[in-house]
Amino acid sequence: MYKKIWNTCSQPICAITFLDETNKKIGSGTGFKVKGFLVTNNHVYATND
User: Fold this and answer.
1) Residue 32 and residue 39 in contact, taking contact as beta carbons nearer than 8 Å
2) Which of 3, 5, 6, 43 has its CA 20 to 30 A from that of 21?
């Protein structure tokens, strides 16, 4: 049961890492894409696809 759900839903799930200009990690989080938007626990971003 869970394998079918994972296979259906896992594609839009992503890990996000934010780097400064020296490539030092300054933040990270997770989110998912839905209908042209990237949704995190704090923000919703429009995407270009």
Assistant:
1) yes
2) 43
- How does DSSP classify residue 1? -
Contact 19, 26 (CB under 8 A): yes
Residue that has been written with the tokens 């994972």 in this structure = 6
Tell me the pTM: 0.51
d(CA 13, CA 30): 8
2 pLDDT band, cuts 50/70/90, is confident
Other CB atoms within a 10 A radius of the CB of residue 31 amount to 19
Beta strands per DSSP E along the chain: 13-19, 25-34, 37-40, 44-46
